[in-house]
């Protein structure tokens, strides 16, 4: 298992639907077909979004409830589409980060790695199920009968010959009556295709930030375990004294302890047939009591303990600096997309709350279910961003707790000063920020945006009643 599992899963998903076209197949004619599918995907998606936006601004604006619903669809489709463009426009940089995660991240704790990968897979499945339910609710709502009053409104708004035949998405198609066959069947098929693509893009959009944060949080968990060992005597699970030569790859050497039987206490490399390597972790085992010639390894038993502790702390600082650089590069690369996503989530939250609270008694049961599913989807995506920002700040909290559990008393004055510097660095906030730090994404920001959305809804109600 690898920490890059999340990125690879998202890329594979986008490759399946044709959003990206990077994987080369064996035959050239298949590659040409993949390229054609990739081009047609973006042409159809862009044409559908533009046609839907024109219909919203030119037709649906004459009836405000319909206008808000179509505007919500425009904004959400734009958010999902352009957020996925992050993976298309930054493919080379993200591919380099994937290689970095595979080769330079720490895999010392198998339990942490397995938990991280399992959570990424579970997140992807849960969000996909939720998006699928929402899309089914949107399509099913158009197949349910509605009141005669609503049919009359739609007939006057769209000038359809058969207003009871409704499509889930309204496109601007001049000189075409969408309710007539065969136009109705063709538009319904295209809408179903677009809904499927939007559901997949929504899955990538919602899962991208949580997967990034899960990886960073797992690395900080491993780092905190190493920080706790500062000043302590290092031993393996069997109680043997060890020294770390590289904490990232978990390379260790065993140290001879005084007072032991030196004739029978030796250490060796495993024979070639028994060598075990997992992510460059080196395993050694104790030589048995048998008098067989074995090759011994050289240990750093002559290194002074204080010198080793300084070397160990240097490795910890390098680990921490690597994580800071990785987080900074990834979030800086994603910052423009994050800013647009957060601001548009604010607007879609207000639109959803308005539809739920504005005269819900006139809604049919299917429409209520559709609107509630849409509200849950938007609230989930928005809250996950704020929740992940809090988890990033908790990474520094783990470091602070680990520094507090380190053995300050047995550490040298030089290491104590370095621990103070590390503690100072861990006390700085680690939230995600947008607009140059003007807006700090957190749970408090989410609460403020929900309150702002309710204020917007109340304002719209007063304006409609005036």
Automatic annotation (TrEMBL):
Keyword tags: Cell membrane, Membrane, Olfaction, Receptor, Sensory transduction, Transducer, Transmembrane, Transmembrane helix
GO (cellular component) term, any one: plasma membrane
Residues passing through the membrane, by range: 39-60, 122-140, 191-216
Membrane topology label: Multi-pass membrane protein
Pfam families per UniProt: 7tm_6
Subcellular location: Cell membrane
PANTHER family in UniProt: ODORANT RECEPTOR, ODORANT RECEPTOR 19A-RELATED
The keyword Amino-acid biosynthesis appears for this protein: no
Major location category of this protein: membrane
Keyword set includes Transmembrane: yes
Family statement: Belongs to the insect chemoreceptor superfamily. Heteromeric odorant receptor channel (TC 1.A.69) family.
Name of the protein: Odorant receptor
Chain segments annotated as coiled-coil in the UniProt record: none
Any one Gene Ontology BP term: signal transduction
Originating gene: OR11
Molecular function GO terms recorded: odorant binding; olfactory receptor activity
């Amino acid at each position: 298992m690898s920490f890059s599992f999340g990125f690879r899963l998202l890329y594979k998903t986008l490759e399946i639907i044709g959003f990206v076209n990077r994987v080369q197949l064996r035959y050239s004619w298949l590659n040409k077909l993949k390229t054609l599918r990739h081009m047609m995907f973006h042409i159809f998606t862009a044409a559908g979004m533009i046609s839907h936006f024109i219909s919203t601004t030119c037709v649906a604006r004459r009836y405000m409830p319909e206008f808000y619903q179509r505007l919500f669809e425009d904004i959400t489709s734009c958010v999902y589409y352009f957020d996925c463009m992050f993976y298309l426009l930054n493919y080379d940089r993200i591919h380099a980060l994937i290689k970095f995660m595979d080769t330079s991240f720490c895999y010392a704790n198998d339990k942490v790695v397995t938990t991280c990968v399992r959570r990424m897979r579970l997140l992807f499945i849960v969000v996909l199920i939720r998006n699928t339910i929402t899309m089914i609710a949107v399509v099913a709502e158009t197949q349910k009968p509605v009141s005669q009053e609503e049919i009359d409104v739609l007939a006057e708004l769209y000038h359809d010959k058969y207003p009871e035949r409704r499509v889930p998405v309204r496109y601007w198609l001049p000189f075409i009556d969408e309710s007539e066959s065969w136009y109705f069947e063709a538009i319904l098929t295209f809408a179903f295709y677009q809904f499927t693509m939007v559901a997949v893009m929504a899955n990538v959009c919602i899962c991208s930030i949580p997967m990034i944060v899960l990886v960073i949080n797992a690395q900080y968990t491993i780092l905190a375990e190493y920080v706790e060992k500062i000043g302590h005597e290092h031993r393996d699970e069997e109680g043997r004294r060890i020294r770390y030569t590289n904490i990232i790859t978990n390379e260790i050497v065993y140290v001879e302890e005084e007072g032991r039987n030196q004739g029978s206490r030796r250490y060796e490399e495993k024979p070639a047939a028994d060598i075990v390597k997992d992510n460059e972790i080196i395993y050694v085992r104790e030589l048995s009591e048998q008098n067989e010639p074995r090759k011994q390894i050289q240990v750093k038993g002559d290194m002074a303990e204080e010198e080793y502790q300084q070397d160990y702390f240097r490795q910890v600082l390098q680990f921490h600096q690597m994580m800071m650089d990785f987080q900074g590069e990834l979030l800086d690369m994603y910052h423009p997309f994050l800013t647009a996503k957060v601001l548009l989530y604010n607007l879609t939250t207000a639109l959803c709350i308005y539809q739920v609270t504005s005269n819900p008694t006139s809604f049919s049961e299917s429409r209520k279910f559709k609107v509630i599913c849409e509200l849950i989807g938007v609230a989930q995506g928005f809250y996950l961003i704020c929740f992940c920002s809090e988890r990033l700040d908790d990474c520094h909290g783990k470091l602070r707790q680990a520094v507090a559990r380190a053995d300050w008393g047995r550490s040298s004055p030089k290491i104590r000063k370095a621990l103070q510097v590390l503690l100072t660095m861990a006390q700085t906030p680690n939230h995600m920020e947008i607009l140059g730090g003007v807006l700090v994404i957190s749970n408090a920001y989410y609460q403020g945006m929900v309150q702002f959305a309710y204020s917007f809804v109340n304002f719209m109600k007063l304006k409609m009643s005036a």
